[in-house]
Write a structure and sequence with these properties.
Layout: E1 17-20, E2 31-34, H1 41-54, E3 59-64, E4 71-76
Antiparallel strand pairs: 1-2, 2-3, 3-4
């Protein structure tokens, strides 16, 4: 993936934002691309799915690894969780 190219969320089309990975992360990257659109269907329906399936008040945001191209959920416990780790370029 070209470093200058900003990928878009496949669920809502919003531009993904760089999110600084924790120091002890096993992802092997300094950042992940994450959808922080609070109206993204993936994030919105995650609240219901997590409650029905796991009985927890949580959801997830779409995450894309810039090195591997692999994607998956970034678990979140609130609308504001993880936003303090957004990297502004």
């Amino acid at each position: 993936m070209d470093e200058q190219e900003i990928p878009k969320c496949p669920y809502c089309g919003a531009a993904l934002k760089k999110w600084r990975t924790p120091a002890d992360s096993t992802w092997g990257t300094l950042f992940q691309w994450v959808c922080f659109n609070d109206e993204c269907p993936y994030f919105v329906r995650g609240w219901d799915w997590m409650w029905q399936d796991q009985r927890v008040k949580a959801s997830y945001r779409y995450r894309l690894n810039p090195l591997t191209g692999g994607s998956g959920p970034l678990p979140t416990w609130s609308y504001e969780a993880h936003k303090d780790r957004i990297i502004d370029d």
